[in-house]
Amino acid sequence: MNRILHLVFGVFGNATGLFLFLAPTITFKRIVMKRSTEQFSGIPYVMTLLNCLLSAWYGLPFISPNNILVSIINGTGAAIESVYVLIFLIFAPKKEKAKIFGLLVVILAVFSVVACVSVFAIHDLHTRKLICGFAATVFSILMYASPLSVMRMVIKTKSVEFMPFFLSLFVFLCGTSWFIYGLIGKDPFLAVPNGFGCGLGAMQLILYFIYRGNKGETKKPNKDESLEMGLSKPNL
């Protein structure tokens, strides 16, 4: 029974994860059409790319047996996020472009170090899983935490104009699915970060329902403020 539930929540996690990765496509369509990144920040997409790379690596059989579904969705996510980062680099202002490119180099270096060390320096499967799982956990939490500035903006402006409902919903559903998947599989490296994501998604939904009647009625963010997630207007 546990195996069936494990598979069910893994498949559901893949489905919600795919929607979560595809949620910013309208944002990037806007960026391409306007040929400008406006006030959007590229940092969450670079951090999500690193998270996807590390999580896809962690799910491989020679690192963490019975977690191939983790590799499938995160490998897909890595490809999608790579496209987002490339688009951002093409249309971002020079200063922002340099910052995002520098961060991209750093995250690729981090992934390369983790991958090489786990393959060439560590031969014990338990130790390999421990190190790769810890790295994936840290950056999964950072990925889920990246929209915190938007939550702060929602509270400050009392408007959900900059926090799309469906993006918040899929953060909650994806986090919940993988949290349960991790609990069933007794894998703390999946349960802990996704439990955090589940809680953060729930907080976003609560904020949305508190302030949804105010969207579009309050001031826009200052030029110095970057948007950390999704669209400038909810995709409803």
TrEMBL record:
Subcellular location: Cell membrane
GO molecular function terms attached to this record: sugar transmembrane transporter activity
One GO cellular component term: plasma membrane
InterPro entries registered for this protein in UniProt: SWEET, SWEET_rpt
Ranges in a coiled coil: none
Family matches, as Gene3D superfamilies: 1.20.1280.290
Keyword Transmembrane: yes
Parts of the chain that traverse the membrane: 6-28, 40-60, 72-93, 100-122, 128-150, 162-184, 190-211
Signal sequence segment: none
Primary location group: membrane
Topology with respect to the bilayer: Multi-pass membrane protein
GO biological process entries: protein homooligomerization
The entry's keywords: Cell membrane, Membrane, Repeat, Sugar transport, Transmembrane, Transmembrane helix, Transport
Record flagged with keyword Transport: yes
Chain's role: Mediates both low-affinity uptake and efflux of sugar across the membrane.
Record-stated family: Belongs to the SWEET sugar transporter family.
The protein's name: Bidirectional sugar transporter SWEET
